[in-house]
Amino acid sequence: MRLYILQRLLSLIPVMLVVAVVVFFLIHLTPGDPASIILGPEALPEDVEKLREELGLNLPIIQQFFIWLSGIFKGDLGWSLFMDMPVTEAFFSHLGPTLSLAIFAQIISIVIAIPFGIIAATRRGTAVDQFFMVFALLGISIPSFLLGLLLILVFAVKLHWLPVAGYQPLSAGLLNHLKFLILPAITLGAIQAALIARMTRSSMLDILNMNYIKTAHAKGLKERVVIFKHAFRNAFIPILTVIGQSFGTLVAGAVVTEAVFNLPGLGQLIVNSIQRRDFVVIQGTVLLIAGAYVLINLIVDLLYGIIDPRVRLNRK
User: Fold this and answer.
1) Which pLDDT tens digit goes with each residue over 212-233?
2) Do residues 99 and 188 both lie within one domain?
3) Number of domains in the chain
4) Total-model pTM
């Protein structure tokens, strides 16, 4: 198992290198000059050129890339052109809201999706099954920004139950912290709940048709024991895969939701950096998010061996 973990960690290096190359060159090939934005539209051309030289923006793009890459290997992702702080500090200062939102949204999606998927599978072909699958289809189809605006209209503007937007850190109290996250978490978790519910239903249907499940029924075991002890445990690996991928998606894809609810997370950091042409922050933030996504998939892969001993034996 240790050798397997080491191999997987080493395999992250080429993946992250490809991400670094793609992100760097895509950002630098887009129009816009950070020096011009920093000095403003009334700056003299010679002042702009002098600042470009100070920032190293006048160097060939290949040279800029290798300077940035060498810094990464030293643990230095660069210095923000606008915020006057290291990229890692800017990243972690905005990570809290995004991480809280992603965890809360994931909990909501799992609590909703897995029971819906199990019920739909055990009631296959009935009106209950069709109702839950229509719900899943709606969850996938409705854009997150539209769902967010609808939730704001109903629960914040009309009913005044929850705040329209904003954020309170965990230090302000758990209830106050969650109050500002309920609507964005539902918005962000709805799509993931639909995907997890569909996978749960599909995986459960495959297992429920197995002979050992029919044998368990023939032995007179209670339906609850057959469903949760024998069927769901064996159906959980593909469900876990979707959950892991969805959590990575929640962390990486919260930009729109954070914009709708004015959350000071990584999405807001990326959007502001794009508007300012703060290349260094965009590169570092996207690279760290990609690394987190790959690491989450690795953790999910390692959890397979805990859930299913056959996976552990195959690795040996």
Assistant:
1) 888 888 888 888 888 888 888 8
2) yes
3) 2
4) 0.83
